[in-house]
Amino acid sequence: MSEFLWTSVALSDVGRVRAANEDSVFTNVESGVFVVADGMGGHAAGEVASAIASQTIGASACSACGTLDALRDQLVAAFLAAGDEISHQVEQDPTRSGMGTTCTVLMLQAEGHFLIGHIGDSRAYLLRDDEFRRVTRDHSWVQEQVDRGLIKPEQAMGHPQSNIITRALGTDPTPTPDLYSGTLQQGDSFLLASDGLTDLVADEKIAEILANARSAEEAAESLVGAANRGGGFDNITVLIVNVDTA
User: Fold this and answer.
1) Which residues contact 212 (CB under 8 A, 6 or more apart)?
2) CA distances (Å), 89 to each of 35, 45, 65, 78, 84, in order?
3) Sheet containing 123-128: which strands, arranged edge to edge?
4) Helix (H) or strand (E) holding 122
5) Whole-prediction pTM value?
6) What are the sequence ranges of the domains in the chain?
7) Is the CATH number 3.60.40.10 carried by domain 11-245?
8) CA 157-181-161 angle, 5° bins
9) pLDDT in tens, 106-146
């Protein structure tokens, strides 16, 4: 049985409005661990929170081992540890009160499994056999209104309350992530992205760019460019992981 291997490309852009980039990225191709985090809080606090999340959870995921169930437990523990560290930083510096971060993590195994951990409204997508789907569900006020049938899905993108996050690291005492798992297929393409992309570029357009790009580098640049042309109101981060077999 062939083992799976993968390549990745990450691109993070400050956008056209923000003065600083509060997104963070962690990649370790050898370990198959990829992280995107989108911080919040101002006074450089968002940048601190997202860096803590991406580095803490990324490092823990790289050292995780065992069965898929064991990996799930270790990933949840990593999210909790990152949340505790962010809270500790706030205790040490009260000016950072309210800082927090989203975090979406992709873990790949050469044997053919993937595991995604997610909290907040950064997203993970999967492009497989020309079918593009969102894997994660946003932890946001807008998503809750969609789930309740109060607004239509097409009204969610760019909604005035789209920045209201209902679950995040640093703002929840026990920040438990949602977990998603599955098996890999040759040709899979994963996209992790902050809401600086998804608030401005529709899923259909994202899928079109990924499908038509000649390389992951071109896809990443095109996605960031599309978000900036749409206004670039937030930091924009995209991380593309392409899967193949040895």
Assistant:
1) none
2) 21, 9, 29, 17, 9
3) 4-13, 236-245, 189-193, 123-128, 131-134
4) none
5) 0.95
6) 11-245
7) yes
8) 20
9) 999 999 999 999 999 999 999 999 899 999 999 989 888 98
